[in-house]
Amino acid sequence: MTDSNLTTSDAAIRRQLLREFWFYFSQNRGAVLGLAVFVLLVLTAVFASLLAPHDPTQQYRDALLVPPVWAEGGRAEFLLGTDAVGRDMLSRLIHGSQYSLFIGIVVVAIALTGGVVIGLIAGFYGGWVDSVIMRVMDVILAFPSLLLALVLVAVLGPGLTNAMIAIAIVYQPHFARLARAAVMGEKAREYVAAARVAGASNLRLMFRTILPNCLAPLIVQATLSFSSAVLDSAALGFLGMGAQPPTPEWGTMLAEAREFILRAWWVVTFPGLAILTSVLAINLMGDGLRDALDPKLKRS
Amino acid sequence: MIRFILSKLLYLVPTLLGITLVAFGFIRLLPGDPVLLMAGERGVSPERYAQIAAQLGYDKPVWQQYLGYLGDLLQGDLGNSLVTKRPVLDEFLALFPATVELGLVAILIAAFVGVPVGVIAAIKRGSWFDQISMTGALIGFSMPIFWWGLLLIILFSGILGWTPVSGRISLMYYFPPVTGFMLIDSLLSGQDGAFASAVSHLILPSIVLDTIPLAVIARQTRSAMLEVMGEDYVRTARAKGLPPARVIGVHALRNAMIPVITTIGLQIGVLMAGAILTETIFSWPGIGKWMIDSISRRDYPVVQSGLLLIAGIVMIVNLIVDLTYGLINPRIRHQ
User: Fold this and answer.
1) Contacts of A151 in chain B (CB under 8 A)
2) Which range is the signal sequence, renumbered to this chain (chain B) (predicted)?
3) Helix/strand/coil percentages in chain A, nearest 5
4) Residue A1: pLDDT above 50?
């Protein structure tokens, strides 16, 4: 009886919190716009094979560097034109959204999980464990992120999977630091002491009692990392160390397009625009999330 | 203050050692035999192999190798490039000024444009200036700079023909490097048009490189100003009837600058990452392009030491920022 009462009130509280969250989030027009673009991006990625008019790797030998449909010489079957080997730009861009989203999700998942576990352990146990862990994180942070990712890719071998692992390793310390700081702040609170007295194990204290109360800054950091991951993986692709041709990854497309910049503006413009739009949308959302979740971080 | 500096320096030691461990471990983690990788040779006879291994010290236990590596570092021996056979340190020192010049110009533009923009946006909060500049800042912050560089090349070099596509100065000019900074050297050379050529080569790369720092600084300045302007001491200064320029310039700005200076310092790491991309796009002969080229040429001694030098420099700059921070904010010093 009491139990069911408790769950309904829990659900009610959750609904109330969600409503409150949406209220603050929707106050920020940019954030709502970002969310809309992001949802569109997700839909494009999910239904890529239905939306794309052509196969992204199909080479039309009679249509090399065809300009977009509105430009002189454009053809209706290639709305955004074709690249140097006659592949449809629009189809490649649509399929490219899958890679960007996938990279963002994987990188954030690895960096978040790893960073949170490391940060929780450091903050919870303190002492030499904390010192050793945080010095290791300092070392990772001392390297410029893209450089470290490049070197890690050199060690692991170029390719999309390795690029994602490398970027995730580079991002991990940010999550670890946040989680550690949050845990250190929460550890001394009474509810933690109460849980400990009630016989909760260290693992339970860390993950069930403390972690849910430290989520806000971690979620904000996760969105920021998501957009940085899209940027950095595109940069690695551009430098030839990320996804390899003929993968329609946006950064890799830009790398292939470089030699044509003065002859065919469309092969350069569209992939970059796709990267910029997605990153911008995610950053806009991140701003809104920060305002809604964590008033302390609010930039007014 | 001395205690503050010493404690900061002491704090650096484990991180520095960690960086040397990463650089040391890098070669050993690479797929393939480290001896052959470092020697840049393939299919050698067993005698030659043993000779190289002994020469590089790879026949000793790992901990002795590491100590030997640290010893070499302390003596300034960072190994030789496999490609040019020159000492890595010499190559680094020859190319470093190009990156510093580009980075300095970029960070100066970012600070001298970003701070006023942030201040004005904060003062005129909600105005069209605020909205446009902050939208611009968010776009800049989200910009894939390697694409931005290509767009600028298309527009200014391709269509308008105003700026050169690559390099530091036109091939028409030649003078021996004195300071390594092309802007200064071109002036010293006294050749007509050399300085203008150096400037025209620097414009696009520095715009590209300063895009993200500029956006970050403008956003940070605005939010720091807004925070400070709500403080009691600013209200008091206003209530005393001080002119608004003095309230903003002296009372608000000085305090708002504290987090902004940290932000500017933190951009050095961002600049180094940006330099890799910017230098690649504009064929700028600096450290970033050198690292990329070395990675793709598998010139591992260069990659190893370059990694170490860049991380070391980023750390030293961060230390200087930390110290400046202590200098302008006594509260930090006494903690």
Assistant:
1) 26, 295, 303, 307
2) none
3) 75, 0, 25
4) no
